[in-house]
Design a protein that fits this description.
248 residues; alpha/beta; Rossmann fold; 20% strand; binds S-adenosylmethionine
Length: 248
């Protein structure tokens, strides 16, 4: 008797096929908007993210643990919710984004901070941060690495603008877990945390630490790292809440 050696997928029922035909282009469009929001759809997405990514951002902000008087840059700041909370910690904040639409939203939401000189919003790409060397104490990026044209180069930039002892916190859907179907994989490039760690090592970071918080969001990794140097005391909070030792 002839036996099949490879499994054959049963054909999908037509409603599922029709749904996939309709949602595929929509998910592709929304994913491209997420990479560089523009127009009305971009503004609407920005409004959605303010709630949707709040908890992941809050954990990242907590891990960065910005101190009063420190200067922090957020790469891919989007609508600027995290910028406001970083400033509330007493830091002076710089938001960098490739999208003028998102910068306008961030400016509107944080007008008082901009007016008070506590927040600067700069159009730019993480691959060439519009900041001088040794300019900041912290770098943060949430749900943005997927869209960076060259993550290794961007981590090099983060190392360049950080002062010795500066901290980096990154939160993203890591490649170890499948992406939700609504995120188009041809737009959302999700490296594994192993790959990310290699890039951070190559950029000169130390104390690279990966945290998973399925209680907050399944599949999201929070990665922290410290730029070696002892110019000032450093504390990147560990999962247990203890400060990590600065590297010598
Ligand atoms: C999905 S949104 C996340 C926004 C915000 N961080 C949050 O958690 O809600 C991604 C943001 O990254 C920005 N972005 C994409 N590529 C970038 C790059 N190479 N450099 C800086 N920002 C970038 C996009 O314009 C967008 O505002």
């Amino acid at each position: 008797m002839l036996r099949r050696t490879c499994p054959v997928k049963p054909p999908q029922p037509w409603p599922a096929r029709a749904a996939a035909t309709l949602t595929g282009p929509l998910f592709g469009y929304l994913s491209r908007q997420a990479a560089r929001p523009h127009g009305l759809a971009g503004r609407l997405l920005g409004r959605i993210w303010i709630r949707e990514t709040a908890v992941v951002n809050d954990v990242a902000i907590d891990l960065l643990d910005a101190k009063p008087g420190e200067r922090v840059v957020e790469i891919g700041c989007g609508p600027g919710r995290a910028l406001g909370w970083l400033a509330a910690d007493g830091a002076t904040v710089v938001g960098v984004d490739v999208s003028p639409t998102m910068l306008a939203t961030a400016r509107r939401r944080n007008a008082h901070l901009v007016a008070g000189g506590r927040l600067e919003l700069l159009l730019g790409d993480g691959i060439a941060l519009p900041l001088p060397d040794d300019a900041v104490d912290g770098v943060v990026g949430v749900h943005t690495i997927y869209f960076w044209p060259d993550p290794a180069a961007t981590f090099g930039e983060a190392a360049r603008v950080l002062r010795p002892g500066g901290r980096l916190v990154l939160a993203y859907r890591a490649g170890e877990h499948p992406l939700p179907r609504r995120l188009d994989p041809s737009v959302y490039h999700a490296p594994t945390t192993e790959q990310l760690t290699k890039w951070l090592d190559a950029a000169g970071f130390a104390h690279v630490d990966v945290r998973w918080r399925p209680d907050v969001e399944h599949g999201v990794a929070w990665v922290t790292a410290v730029l070696p140097g002892t110019s000032k005391p450093v504390s990147v909070r560990t999962a247990a809440g203890e400060p990590a030792a600065p590297s010598g």
